[in-house]
TrEMBL record, chain A:
EC number(s) from the headed UniProt entry: 7.2.2.11
Upper lineage: Bacteria, Bacillati, Bacillota, Bacilli, Lactobacillales
SMART domains in the record: AAA
Residues spanning the membrane: none
Pfam family, any one: ABC_tran
Highest taxon listed in the record's lineage: Bacteria
GO cellular component: plasma membrane
This protein's name: Nickel import system ATP-binding protein NikD
The gene coding this protein: oppD
Mode of membrane association: Peripheral membrane protein
TrEMBL record, chain B:
GO cellular component, one term: plasma membrane
Protein name per Swiss-Prot or TrEMBL: Oligopeptide transporter permease OppB
Organism: Fructobacillus pseudoficulneus
Coiled coil: none
Domain ABC transmembrane type-1: 97-307
Similarity field: Belongs to the binding-protein-dependent transport system permease family.
TM stretches of this protein: 9-30, 97-123, 135-161, 187-207, 242-268, 288-314
Membrane topology reported for the UniProt record: Multi-pass membrane protein
GO biological process, one term: transmembrane transport
Subcellular location: Cell membrane
Entry keyword set: Cell membrane, Membrane, Transmembrane, Transmembrane helix, Transport
From TrEMBL, chain C:
The species this protein was found in: Fructobacillus pseudoficulneus
Protein name as it appears in the record: Oligopeptide transporter ATP-binding protein OppF
Keyword rRNA processing: no
Protein family membership: Belongs to the ABC transporter superfamily.
Keyword rRNA-binding part of the UniProt annotation: no
Length: 337, 321, 328
């Protein structure tokens, strides 16, 4: 039995917008085991980064209300004071951000920035600079001596992302959160960075929460996938099952929108409409169904249970609409047979 | 780095020539000359003509310009016609430059101290009453003409609350430098403080919005995610990034003091370069005016150079290898 | 097939300055001796990592930058320089679509004004579609307004869009507005520089479908610049792979994806993650093998001690590879 690392129960996040609170994340349940890569997939506005920021406790407390429970190694995180949070940010959880250029301080040498991650938790020690060089070597930077003295703008995008990873690893965290870690990178560099994350994760036995909108990246390194739409998880499954046997209409639509899954000359599936704005989100419904034009309005308006249904071992889906869901071209084929 | 500075200085030379030409032409365009007005109305026109001839004022402008430049290269800026009649221009300016310099340096230091502390206070308490009060105050000082404030300060601290002397510089001939320096501080402080109080607004506004912008930057989030407390993030990351564009402005603001000195020195009866400029203008003292404008032009160019050097020094992204 | 654009030996060098007098000491070869023919109604993909020079080619092609040397022919007219392009109102025929629709739309102008801009400059062609490109053009304001509405209909946006401002639209909608503007003058070639890389998958699908449709319906040629091989594979008939300012391989979609020859192409292809999760391990091994081959056989594909690829040589009628001459 895998050892449970992170357990999120019924996590909701409300943002205060013009005096009223609006729900951006509605009752998310997730667990990450040690040594597991869990991918959180969804489009912009789906709430996946909001979830990551809740684990890190980095929401602006004056504008945000986080409820529910997030336990890391059995310790509750929600409700910690800033000082308590500082203890474990960067220590038991390391985070890698999307754009490594803007995410690094432009005026600070690479070495100093990594050293800061170490000293802030361990105090200043002589071994720090040695530790920094080791970290740089570990993330595949050969001339670590030179790079440590450089500034972010002097490095390539791929190198900068390696630096970000080194920083996140500084205190051997149990959990690594990677928020779109390869979105800004070219294909070859992307595959190198993904390999690196995987290698380090396996070596350290850490858990990884990978946040991405890129299905290819998910297929490449995830063990388990949770698909998010409008602040809720709509489907969760081991990675092979999700790609080979997707159930929820949203997951299926996304896969059809990806050029990779279209036969030559075929048309991509363009999901009609747009993600509803926060004020329009009624989380008692399966909100994606609004964007399936051929569906019966009664089904669209129907209330849906808050919890996911386990339809086969480890495969969870929200609502029941998936049972009769078919794309128009599939319906024709069914009609003929 | 040294190479870049040297190259920049070489580039300044043609700029200087252009500036000097411009200044000379402007001086030529000024109505009248020093001999009108200051002489006995009954003087023989032939005498005036002789004097003008002796001063070279009857030559074509380009010959006058060449003579002027030749003399400048020999350190000779001519003789004052009216302000200190018969004194060399270098001597006149020399006697006036120290008060302005000391007042200017104090003013720049105070300006930055005031602007930075106000901006830090405002940014840390964004949208609280103290922030709003500072924003209103700085809007006020930028909207009302500075000389109005100068009078108010004069009335407050010289007449109603006589903390500071009403005129003079405290510098006496024959006294040692140290004595003069400390005596002068008492005289220089009020005009310097006044200049500073009312020139903080642009730096304040800029720095305040910079500080707020920087807080929302991605690298701040990264530092927070490392476990660095907000206080430390502010000190180690945000401050330096927010100060960056301000630092490069220091070069310019030092030269800006000369301009600011014109009002302040006249109102506070502080006989420095600013007051000299006003005297020279009313007395049509060509040689002084052109020398002062040349001084200001040169300082502006040097200020620009200084600003570039400071930016290159503090910002690794524009540092030249 | 008719030849629309012919690029020959195109170069774009940036001087590297140094020394006391800031003299030119070296060149950065952003684009280094590249030739390409674009035929009417065909789609082309230009693939490479960031900094490979692909965007620079696009910019020289639409007239945002002058080449250092080489030639661009359009309809057999010399349009190498920006000046030559201006002289024949070249941009009514060749338009560019950028990645970032946010910054390529003026936030203070209404969508109507934005789409009308090229029409104010070049006039309204008689009919939508490339048949209209040689016809009389009209500058009548009423015709311009009518044309703007037509274009909005083509890109699937309601007529009221005319009065609205860019910020009122989502990323996908803005990208369609940009395409509408590009289509306004009936161009014969659209250069699209990473047009979908900032978009979510579902929105990307909308924009790609739509671009494909207008391409087919109006027979417009497309040069699709992208680092995303999946998108290029879906969108284009012909592909050129670029590395360090040089073409390393050029061929049809099938040539490149089914019979890649150059080691860099192979490396790019091996880097595309597979959605067949069960192939994950074998893909990773293949990737490592190609990376090893890249290091081992460097001299076969690049001039000794440099990253400059050899000149292209044909291996079939459509397929060209840069490889050392003695290689067989």
């Amino acid at each position: 039995m895998a050892e449970e690392l992170l357990e999120a129960r019924d996590v909701s996040v409300d943002f205060r917008i013009k005096g009223t609170y609006q729900t951006a994340l509605a009752g998310v349940n997730l667990t990450i085991d040690r040594g597991q890569v869990l991918a959180l997939v969804g489009e912009s506005g789906s709430g996946k980064s909001t979830f990551a920021m809740s684990i890190m406790g980095l929401h602006n407390p004056e504008l945000t209300k986080v409820t529910g429970s997030i336990q890391l190694n059995g310790e509750e995180l929600i409700g910690l004071t800033e000082e308590q949070y500082d203890q474990y940010r960067g220590n038991s959880v390391g985070m890698i951000f999307q754009d490594p250029l803007s995410s690094l301080n432009p005026l600070m040498r690479i070495g100093e920035q990594i050293a800061e991650a170490i000293t802030v938790h361990n105090g200043k020690a002589q071994s720090v600079s040695e530790h920094v060089l080791n970290l740089l070597t570990e993330v595949g930077i050969p001339d670590s001596d030179r790079v440590a003295k450089q500034y972010p703008h002097e490095l390539s995008g791929g190198m900068r992302q390696r630096v970000m990873i080194a920083m996140a690893l500084a205190n051997e965290p149990d959990l690594i959160i990677a928020d779109e870690p390869t979105t800004a990178l070219d294909a070859v560099i992307q595959s190198q960075i993904l390999d690196l994350i995987k290698k380090i994760q396996q070596k350290k036995g850490a858990g990884v929460l990978l946040i991405t909108h890129n299905l290819d990246v998910v297929a490449e390194i995830a063990d388990e996938v949770a698909v998010m739409y409008a602040g809720q998880i709509v489907e969760k499954a081991p990675v092979e099952r999700l790609f080979n046997n997707p159930k929820h209409p949203y997951t299926r639509s996304l896969l059809r929108a990806d050029p990779e899954n279209v036969q030559a000359g075929g048309e991509l599936y363009a999901i009609p409409g747009t993600v509803p704005s926060l004020s329009e989100m009624d989380h008692h419904k399966d909100l994606f169904l609004q964007r399936v034009p051929w569906l019966d309005q009664k089904l669209v308006d129907a209330d849906v249970a808050d919890t996911l249904t386990e339809i086969e071992p480890d495969h969870y889906v929200r609502g029941t609409a998936w049972q009769d869901f078919a794309f128009p071209d599939e319906q024709e084929i069914e009609g003929q047979s | 780095m040294a190479k870049t500075i040297l190259r920049r200085i070489l580039i300044m030379l043609p700029q200087l020539i252009l500036v000097s030409l411009l200044i000379f032409m402007l001086a030529q365009l000024m109505p009248g000359d020093p001999f009108y007005g200051n002489l006995n109305p009954n003087s023989d026109p032939a005498t005036i003509e002789r004097m003008r001839h002796a001063a070279g004022l009857d030559l074509p402008w380009y010959e006058q310009y060449i003579r002027w430049v030749e003399h400048i290269f020999q350190g000779d800026f001519g003789t004052s016609y009216t302000v200190n009649r018969g004194w060399s221009v270098t001597r006149v300016i020399g006697s006036r430059i120290w008060p302005t310099l000391s007042m200017g340096v104090i003013a720049v230091i105070l300006t930055y101290l005031l602007a930075i502390s106000q901006a830090l206070l405002a940014a840390r308490h964004e949208n609280k009453w103290i922030d709003r009060a500072l924003v209103v105050w700085n809007t006020l000082t930028s909207a009302v003409p500075s000389f109005v404030f100068y009078f108010v300060m004069m009335v407050l601290f010289v007449y109603l609350l006589p903390l500071f002397p009403s005129s003079g510089t405290g510098i006496e001939d024959g006294q040692s430098f140290i004595v003069n320096f400390f005596n002068n501080l008492r005289y220089a402080f009020l005009p310097a403080l006044t200049i500073a109080l009312f020139s903080t607004n642009s730096i304040f506004q800029y720095l305040r919005s910079n500080l707020l912008d920087q807080q929302a930057q991605d690298y701040v989030r990264t530092a927070r995610a490392k476990g660095v407390s907000m206080k430390l993030v502010f000190r180690k990351h945000i401050l330096r990034n927010a100060f960056l564009p301000i630092a490069s402005g220091i070069g310019y603001s030092i030269t800006g003091v000369l301009g600011g000195a014109i009002f302040a020195e006249t109102i506070f009866g502080y006989p420095g370069i600013g007051a000299l400029f006003v005297q020279a203008l009313t007395g049509r003292d060509y040689t002084i005016i052109t020398a002062l404008m040349l001084l200001q032009g040169t300082l502006s160019l040097l200020g620009g150079l200084l600003s570039d050097i400071i930016s290159a020094w503090v910002d690794p992204r524009i540092r030249v290898k | 097939m008719t030849e629309l654009v012919k690029i020959t030996n195109l170069k774009n060098y940036y001087p590297v300055k140094g020394g006391f007098f800031n003299k030119k000491t070296d060149d950065i070869k952003a684009v280094d001796d590249v030739s390409l023919t674009i035929e009417a109604g065909q789609t082309y993909g230009l693939v490479g990592e960031s900094g490979s020079g692909k965007t620079t080619i696009g910019k020289m092609l639409v007239g945002l930058e002058n080449p250092t040397s080489g030639q661009i022919l359009f309809d057999n007219q010399d349009v190498t320089t920006i000046k030559q392009k201006k002289a024949i109102h070249y941009n009514k025929d060749v338009q560019m679509v950028f990645q970032d629709s946010q910054s390529s739309l003026n936030p203070r102008k209404t969508i109507g004004t934005i789409i009308a801009e090229p029409l104010q400059n070049f006039g309204v062609p008689a009919a939508i579609g490339s048949e209209g490109h040689n016809q009389e053009r009209s500058f009548d304001q009423e015709k311009i307004e009518q044309r703007v509405l037509e274009l909005l209909e083509v890109v699937g946006l309601p007529a009221k869009t005319v009065e609205q401002y860019p910020f009122q639209f989502s990323g996908g909608q803005r990208q369609r507005i940009v395409v509408a503007r590009a289509l306004a003058t009936n161009p014969r070639l659209i250069v699209a520089d990473e047009p979908v890389s900032a978009l979510d998958l579902s929105v990307q699908a909308q924009v790609l479908n739509f671009m494909k449709k207008i391409q087919r319906d109006y027979g417009i040629s497309f040069l699709f610049i992208s680092h995303d091989l999946g998108v290029v594979k879906y969108m284009t008939d012909n592909i050129a792979i670029m590395h360090h300012g040089r073409f390393v391989e050029m061929g049809t979609n099938q040539d490149i994806f089914d019979h890649p020859q150059h080691i860099y192409t192979k490396r790019l292809l091996s880097a595309i993650p597979s959605q067949k999760v069960e192939d994950r391990q074998s893909k990773r091994e293949e990737r490592l093998a190609v990376a090893a081959e890249f290091d081992r056989d460097h001299d076969l594909y690049y001039e000794p001690d440099s990253l400059r690829a050899y000149d292209l040589s044909p291996i079939s009628e459509t397929h060209f590879v840069s490889i050392r001459k003695d290689h067989n």
